[in-house]
Design brief:
By secondary structure, the chain is α+β, with helices and mostly antiparallel strands. Helices cover about 25% and strands about 25% of the residues. The chain has a single domain, classed as q2cbj1_9rhob like domain (Jelly Rolls). A 6-stranded antiparallel β-sheet has the order 1-7-4-9-3-2, with helices on one face. Strands 6-5-8 form a 3-stranded antiparallel β-sheet, with no helix packed on it. A hairpin with an 8-residue loop joins β5 and β6. The longest helix is centred in the C-terminal third of the chain and has 18 residues. The two termini are about 25 Å apart.
Length: about 210
């Protein structure tokens, strides 16, 4: 079974104001919801976790593998008019949202394209909905808001003005993040950073906050 609706991605236009992005509901096929929910790693602390620090198996592993294949890369290349062939990639998973998550930021300059795939049940809370912003100051000045329902996709080209964030939410919130980055050295550093962060989190209470937003 294919997990990704590449045809839907091909049909979805990229928006260019104020930076290049797209938001697509139902990118991960609904029939995979139960399997992915059953296989999603147990994560009880905020923050992004490297795949090496989690038990990634079954449907979740298959989803990540499909996102690593040429059809998805080629669709993103076509959407953002960028050559990603040979570029290194990173993957992380989140399972909890903490008190500091949601702060407005743009992502690091070593990232080329950011992919966020949300894997939650139907989302009811007002908080935790990613907003793509016009500036780095006002969370209410946004051009798009993505609900983290199961299968929702947010993709954007990293830029100096690719501001994003969300209202505070504390609780379970599942996100798979993929990035194409500028070099394999950067990818290795990102993996090491997340692994060191995970080691620290294992020694701290579950409510320890984490910086950034996805």
């Amino acid at each position: 079974m294919g997990y990704l609706d590449i045809d839907a991605l091909n049909r979805e236009p990229v928006r260019h104001d104020p930076f290049d992005y797209l938001v697509l509901d139902g990118f991960v096929r609904a029939e995979s919801r139960a399997a992915i929910a059953a296989d999603y790693p147990a994560i009880d602390k905020p923050g992004s976790f490297a795949l090496e620090d989690l038990e990634v198996k079954g449907a979740v592993a298959a989803l990540i593998n499909e996102m690593s294949q040429p059809p998805f890369r080629e669709a993103i290349e076509a959407k953002f008019a960028v050559d990603l062939a040979g570029k290194a990639t990173t993957f992380t998973l989140r399972g909890m949202c903490g008190e500091r998550d949601g702060d407005i930021h743009t992502d690091s300059k070593t990232k080329i394209i950011t992919i966020l795939v949300y894997l939650n049940e139907d989302w009811a809370p007002d908080g935790g909905r990613l907003r793509l912003l016009r500036n780095g100051r006002d969370l209410d000045d946004y051009v798009a808001e993505a609900s983290p329902n199961f299968g929702s996709l947010v993709a954007f080209r990293r830029a100096d003005n690719s501001w994003h964030g969300h209202k505070r939410f504390i609780g379970p919130r599942r996100v798979l993040q993929m990035n194409w980055v500028t070099s394999e050295r950067v990818a290795n550093w990102q993996r090491l950073k997340h692994r060191l962060s995970a080691a620290v989190k294992r020694l701290t209470p579950a409510r320890t906050a984490s910086a950034g937003a996805a």
